[in-house]
Amino acid sequence: MFSIARLTFQEASKKRIFLLTLLLSAVFLGLYGAALHLFAKEFVKIQSAPGGVQLIARQVIGQQLLGAGLYFSSFLLALLALLASVGSIASEIENGLLQAIVSKPIHRREIVLGKFLGYGILLTVYALLLYGGIMLLNGHYNHPALTTLTSGNLIAGAAVFLLQPLLLLAVALLFSTLFRTLTAGIVSVLLYALSVVGGFIEQIGGLIDRSDLVNTGIAVSLVIPSDTLFRKLMSIVAGSNSSPLASLAAGPFGVTAPPSNLMLAYIILYIVASIWLAIRVFKKKEL
Questions:
Q1: Tell me: the pLDDT tens digits for 248-283?
Q2: Residue 274, SS3 per DSSP
Q3: DSSP string, 3-41
Q4: pLDDT given for residue 122 in this prediction
Q5: Which residues contact 259 (CB under 8 A, 6 or more apart)?
Q6: At what angle do helices 226-237 and 151-178 cross, to 10 degrees?
Q7: What's the gap between Cα 142 and its chain centre?
Q8: Torsion angle, CA of 35/128/86/6, rounded to 10 degrees?
Q9: Percent of the chain with pLDDT over 70
Q10: Do 236 and 153 contact (CB within 8 A), yes or no?
Q11: C-alpha span between 195 and 205 (Å, rounded)
Q12: Residue 69 CB: number of other CB atoms within 10 A?
């Protein structure tokens, strides 16, 4: 298993999609930092406003800027997790590479687990660097958005941020055992898009107090809960659970109803179940 993981890590780190994602991440962080710098200069101009108005404006705008940074970094993570791993098994079946591997004394479950571990380590390192970059930029230019952030919440936020690519990785591996590479890629991307739409539907439902929209969003999150992790992340790092300005700062990147810890437990079980199903399917698959 560990040999498969090492080879997977080495192969994935050389893929064009990984190098392209690194380039896009560097460009994104540069543009995001420049935008935060400009907004920080604008915040100085509203210091003449009454204290309460100034506090509310900086808090509301600051949380939206923080949310935008974490949202688009989550998108980059999803891009890498899906596109890099969705053909990890299907493409090797198609080109006959796995036939040579399974002929050796190695269990098929070790192949699936090794690939999950290899990609998981790569995504974890990338996610930590991206999360650290976003939080450092906000700490420097957008400190009001982090006034309620504790070191414990910072670490908890990092853990939730890491769950996002691991969830999508588990789903991509499952579809890679079920379908051909192109089909697996299309289905994985569509599911991710469904999660994004469901998250916005639930967010809008919470803002206008429509329980039917909220329930629709929750139903979608049970099918593919990637957007739920982003909302949980925002509730942790932006203090949406306790902030009196949470309703004002909700917006497209905020949280109207923070997901519960029970939902986190469901997501962890979802990841485990996806890997278990991938192993079961791959064991029975004819190569």
A1: 455 666 676 778 889 999 999 999 999 999 999 988
A2: helix
A3: HHHHHHHHHHHTSHHHHHHHHHHHHHHHHHHHHHHHHHH
A4: 93
A5: 221, 228, 231, 232, 235
A6: 170
A7: 22
A8: 140
A9: 85
A10: yes
A11: 15
A12: 26
SS3 content of the chain, % helix, strand, coil (to 5): 80, 0, 20
Place of tokens 């941020």: 161
The answer to whether residues 154 and 131 touch, using CB atoms and an 8 Å cutoff, is: no
* CA–CA–CA angle 8, 271, 86 (5° rounding): 40
CA dihedral 152, 153, 155, 158 (to 10 degrees): 170
Task: State if pTM tops 0.85.
Answer: yes
pLDDT, one tens digit per residue, over 43-91 is: 766 665 555 555 666 777 778 888 889 999 999 999 889 988 888 888 8
- Cα separations in angstroms, 11 against 8, 16, 97, 122: 5, 10, 14, 11
Is the distance from CB of 66 to CB of 40 less than 8 angstroms? no
Residue with tokens 């974490």: 70
